[in-house]
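Here is a typical sample entry:
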Amino acid sequence: MSTPNWTIKRMLDWSDTFLRKYGSESPRLDAELLLCETLGLQRMDLYVQFDRPIEAGELSAYKGLIKRRAAHEPVAYILGNKGFHAIDLDVGPGILVPRPETEHLVDVALSFLAEEACPVGPVVDVGTGSGAIALAVATGLPQTDKRKIFASDTSPVAVDFATRNTARLQLAERVTVLQGDLLTPAVPHGPFAAIVSNPPYIRSDAMAGLERTVRDHEPHLALDGGEAGLEILRRLVDQSVPALLPGGLFAVELGSRQQGQIVAQWLTGAGMKDAAYEPIGPGPTGIVSARAARHSDRRHTSR
């Protein structure tokens, strides 16, 4: 039985207003994605079927999803998946929702791995969460590149999701998921051609001010970087520098230019080369990357 008073267009208009009232930062997009999930449609289909009536069962199911979003549950959790780079990932409670900004880190890694001078060796994604970076890198590598990729996380929930995503994307022969603290579980598989990470970098005193969808639902373990947001980054730098092959890449996402300058100084002080901060778009997020000294660099430095 249909409910003639509710068409796709009217439902979207109502949902937009409702979610805006409850503080959604992207109410129209949220409404569209949730209605697509309910009706089994693509977003374009909504706009060519504006006058389609909503069935009573569809209306009930959709309003249930909208209520969850109004309670600030992430859309990705409600849908159970999130698109990232060229792949689709299963996500859920206990998993950091992959952000578009982190796709730039994948691009940095893939660009480096395509260089003729890139060292031959494995790659590791530290703090992998859903497996986003590791699996996107694995998908982006040419088939002729047979290097192994490791993905580590301390969270059992993250390890479970990353393992499931690896299997679903049929990448288990290339990607190995490990559980443990930062780089520690991967060290026996090194040294590495590249170490990449989207670590926790939000200051502890800034956690309470995060948007509610993030603060109340996503794992603080993957967000809280300590007093200055640098506690995890400091440990990761210390572990990573000796674990890189000569000429290897270290690249991390972080939350501000100031953080980037500090981490770049640490890397330079530890003997890394070309340490630099690169902003991502207009926001505060950026990437710091550096390269391990080659043997010729070390000889030159010692003279």
Summary: Confidence is low (pLDDT under 50) at residues 299-303. Residues 56-70 form the longest helix (15 residues). The chain is about 40% helix and 20% strand. Residues 32 and 43 are 7 Å apart (CA to CA).
